[in-house]
Amino acid sequence: MILVLGVFKIEVEPMIMEMEVLEKGRLLKRYYQRGVVGRNEVVVSYGFIGKVEAALVTQAFLDRFNIDAVFLTGNAGGLEGVEVGDVVIGDSYVEYDFETALGDEGIIVSGSEDLEDKVIAYSNREIKTGLIASGDAFVTAKEKAEEIKRRTGALCVDMDSAAVAKVCHENEKKFLAIKTIVDICGKETEEEFRKNYERYGFLSNLILLDVLKKCVF
């Protein structure tokens, strides 16, 4: 079974609308819907902000269902090298705001090459791949964005991918985040987000929906 997660409903809405529904319910007060897309059994849910909520929701679904692979679809803030509207797949993930008293920084977690290869092969869109950096803040300052880019080399930032990646790694589950860039960090970030979110909010999920219709995971 495949688990598909999004922060808000718009980020998973294409799949909710088009899947053949087998079950509806709630887990941790979050709505979920289980059904079939193509020849894949899928459970979809949404409703979390930040790394803690992302991790607890992911673990709850892994405990409840027999999950083989996890996809996180949604949006991200771009760093140098990407533009608004670009689609980014995470080949690796790191917490940019994790640092211990000894100076240890976040551990880089790799994404699933198998999932990445299939999405790229069956998608009809141009997709960029690279590291996604996650932290519990909306990055609006240019200086902060430049620091994250310098330290991590990430293509984009969000508030969830690294947390979900860590949970999947510990549970030995395949994981892949597909994110659409809705703003460039430090460049009229909040205005760009408001302008572009409704336009691109569903795009990553729509791409995954199309891929799931074409192949079996």
Structure description:
The protein has seven helices and ten strands. Strand 2 (20-27) and strand 3 form a beta hairpin. Helix 2 (50-64) runs parallel beside helix 5 (161-170). It is globular, with a radius of gyration of 16 Å. The relative contact order is 0.23. The mean pLDDT is 94. A five-stranded mixed barrel has the order 5-9-8-6-10, surrounded by five helices. By secondary structure, the chain is α/β, with parallel strands linked by helices. The chain has helices spanning 13-18, 50-64, 113-122, 142-152, 161-170, 189-200, 203-214; strands at 2-6, 20-27, 30-37, 40-46, 69-78, 87-95, 109-110, 128-134, 156-158, 174-184. It has a single domain, classed as Nucleoside phosphorylase domain (Rossmann fold). Helix content is 35%, strand content 32%.
